[in-house]
Design goal:
With 683 residues, the protein is α/β, with parallel strands linked by helices. The protein is built from 24 helices and 26 strands. The chain binds iron/sulfur cluster.
């Protein structure tokens, strides 16, 4: 008998936002190994335990292989035709009862660019609403808003390849050693080759032991911290006055504000010693080529957008953005395609390429390409969708690749919203926490089973290619959207993912130079990329900023306290984050070998707090907040400081997001995951 041929497929990792290029070896239709591509443009032959080993979920017996429909309270297996007919009828009923805005969709980074493009087109063209959002609402929406306000575009300012040449790294609110290990290793290598390192993070994260200065601000005090650094830079003459005169605006207002942020006052707000503030400001402010890299510790706050803008102030003051001087401001995106999901217009206020839906010229261009009217009124953000469902105004919700009942804050309220919504449709790999509340569950392909592109954290488009076929009757999200549109009598066009990206380029000039063929030839291409014959822009703003006046905008936002404060009833502050072997809700990484690497969720607390609250290392504890209760295993750790506890969100069974606060960024509605007041008690 002839042996089936082994195959290798080049694709892009579907976990974190680094975007490692991977070679997937298959035999007889199954993945046998995943190896880092030696010529990967970002990873250069490296990968982490997630990309390399977390593929066992593909053949998990728990994979969904046929659609499920709720009948008499239970989810039962049905065929695709019946499932899609039910969804189509439910969407029509919702629209008859409440108009197009009674329907909403939540897309995600698990979907490719082409899938996100098609989802938002479906909502706008087939339904007639702008109520489509994606998971960036919960993580980096303040980056998009803040970076766009400061510089003009809602993405990082520089390519990571340039960051790697920096002589001073300011790493803020990020734990790349665990959350983005390939980048964490490259940063560490840079430090070992002489770059100075300032880490700002309440926890003693992996890079902190190598830092020249480790700033440990109280959670929720970032804006004061950044203003303190800016104050020192200005008063000690580290600002680039020529750059500020020629290319920035807002210096007078910021200077006036910073008078209130001398080191001693900032030390009182943040808990960071004034001497450390001065040392950090001098390292960043006197470096020849400084770079800022930041994560969710900056964005997931009540004033997350102010945090991003106040951090961006440092780069502007130093003239370290859009110049040879430095390497700007780079957000570390937690998820593979969270940048792309937003780029493709899966947002309630913008179309693909970030043109505002309220702008008649933007709508006119889309209407010409789509041949259909585009609704003008901005749609609902994710938290508003849940509120509308609880109020009875939202009557149908389609959730695509996002386990909102595990990863959104205050999940008890999210579950009540889903239960109140007459039709909840869920595209999923597994019977997730969200799928358990759905009326229809559509089985879909994972990133190793589909065709398209992702955009990584430094705006690079890369190809995603199917290494294996999806199991059973599972379909790609792309096929799901097209099939549903067909059942509803709507022709969405875009028969293939390549066609969808091409159409997106006709609608959004910043993507006009991109195509699957080009990416197949060149590997990775950053946007903006308006011309198929010219390279994309890796480093932004070298001639002018993309703001209306062409200048960088300094922000003068005062420090305001976080939404939650510890008190006698809830004396500890819970911070949530990521761990090295798992990804998001863990639905993929917990089904396979990575569970053995990191099998249990822990509540990390300082030994002093363990003593104070009578908690033994390894004991089960209950954790309570004003929102809910969770049960976890305690682990004493000096990574956290007294008064703070830390937990991941990779294990939905422990219910950590039942605890998290419903406070949200005042600009973007990004939840304040990083500050929840809790109490801990031994069981
Ligand atoms: Fe690379 Fe991130 Fe995937 Fe790890 S999870 S292999 S760092 S893209």
């Amino acid at each position: 008998a002839s042996r089936p041929a082994a195959a290798r497929t080049r694709t892009t990792c579907g976990y974190c936002g680094v975007g490692c290029s991977l070679e997937v070896a298959t035999h007889d239709g199954e993945v046998t190994a995943v190896l880092p591509a030696r010529d990967g443009p970002v990873n250069r032959g490296h990968a982490c335990v997630k990309g390399r080993f977390a593929h066992g979920y593909l053949t998990s017996p728990e994979r969904l292989t046929r659609p499920l429909l709720r009948r008499d309270g239970s989810l039962v297996t049905v065929g695709w035709d019946e499932a899609l007919d039910h969804v189509a009828r439910g969407l029509r009923a919702a629209m008859e009862a409440g108009g197009p805005d009674a329907v909403a969709a939540i897309s995600s980074a698990r979907a490719t660019n082409e899938e996100n493009y098609l989802v938002q087109k479906f909502m706008r063209v087939a339904i007639g609403t702008n109520s489509v959002d994606n998971c960036s609402r919960l993580c980096h929406s303040p980056s998009a808003a803040g970076l766009a306000a400061s510089f003009g575009l809602p993405g990082g300012t520089d390519t990571f390849d340039d960051v790697e040449r920096a002589d001073c790294l300011l790493v803020v609110g990020a734990n790349p050693v665990e959350a983005h290990p390939v980048i964490g290793a490259r940063l560490l290598q840079r430090v070992l080759h002489g770059a100075r390192l300032v880490v700002a993070d309440p926890r003693s994260v992996g890079l902190a032991v190598h830092a020249d200065v480790h700033l440990r601000p109280r959670p929720g005090t970032n804006v004061a911290l950044f203003h303190g650094l800016a104050h020192i830079m200005l008063t000690e003459g580290m600002a680039d006055e020529e750059f500020l005169r020629a290319r920035a605006t807002g210096l007078k207002e910021l200077t006036d504000l910073l008078a209130d942020y001398p080191p001693d006052r900032v030390a009182g707000i943040t808990g960071v010693p004034a001497a450390d503030l001065v040392a950090a400001a001098r390292l960043y402010g006197r470096a020849e080529h400084p770079a800022i890299i930041y994560g969710l510790g900056v964005t997931e706050h009540l004033h997350g957008t102010d945090g991003v803008r106040s951090l961006a102030n440092l780069a502007i003051l130093r003239g370290a953005v859009g110049t040879d001087r430095g390497f700007g401001v780079s957000p570390l995106r937690g998820q593979n395609n969270v940048q792309g999901a937003s780029d493709m217009g899966a947002l309630p206020d913008v179309l693909p390429g970030y043109g505002k839906v309220t702008d008649p010229a933007v709508r006119a261009r889309a209407e010409e390409v789509w041949g259909a009217p585009v609704p003008e009124r901005p749609g609902l953000r994710i938290p508003q969708m849940f509120a509308a469902a609880r109020a009875g105004a939202l009557r149908a919700l389609w959730v695509i690749g996002e386990d909102v009942c595990a990863t959104d804050p205050d999940t008890n309220r999210v579950a009540r919203a889903l239960d109140a919504c007459p039709l909840v449709v869920c595209n999923e790999l597994f019977l997730s926490e969200t799928a358990r509340h759905a009326d229809v569950v559509l089985p879909v392909a994972s990133w190793l089973e589909k065709d398209g592109t992702f955009v990584n954290f430094d705006r690079r488009f890369q190809r995603v290619r199917p290494a294996v076929a999806p199991p059973g009757e599972a379909r790609t999200d792309f096929d799901t959207v097209r099939s549903l549109a067909t059942v509803m009598g709507v022709d969405l066009g875009c028969p293939t993912p390549a066609d969808a990206l091409a159409e997106c380029g006709r609608l959004a000039p910043v993507f006009a130079g991109l195509s699957h063929d080009r990416l197949d030839r060149e590997g990775a291409v950053p946007w903006p990329c308006p011309d198929p014959d010219r390279p994309g822009e890796a480093k932004l703003y070298t001639e002018r900023f993309a703001t209306p006046d062409g200048r960088a905008h300094l922000a003068a936002a005062p420090y305001l306290p976080p939404g939650e404060q510890p008190d006698d009833d809830y004396p500890l502050v819970l911070v949530t984050g990521r761990r090295w072997a798992h990804y998001n809700s863990g639905s993929m990484t917990r089904r396979g070998g990575n569970l053995a690497l990191d099998p249990v969720d822990f509540l990390d607390l300082h030994p002093d707090d363990a003593t104070r609250y009578g908690v033994r290392d390894g004991a089960q504890v209950t954790v309570e907040s004003r929102y809910g209760r969770a049960s976890l295993t305690a682990r004493t750790s000096e990574q956290t400081v007294p008064g703070q506890v830390f937990c991941s969100f990779h294990f939905p069974a422990s219910g950590v997001n039942r605890l998290t606060s419903d406070q949200a960024d005042t600009v973007t509605s990004c939840p304040e995951y990083k500050v929840t007041a809790v109490r801990v008690a031994a069981l």
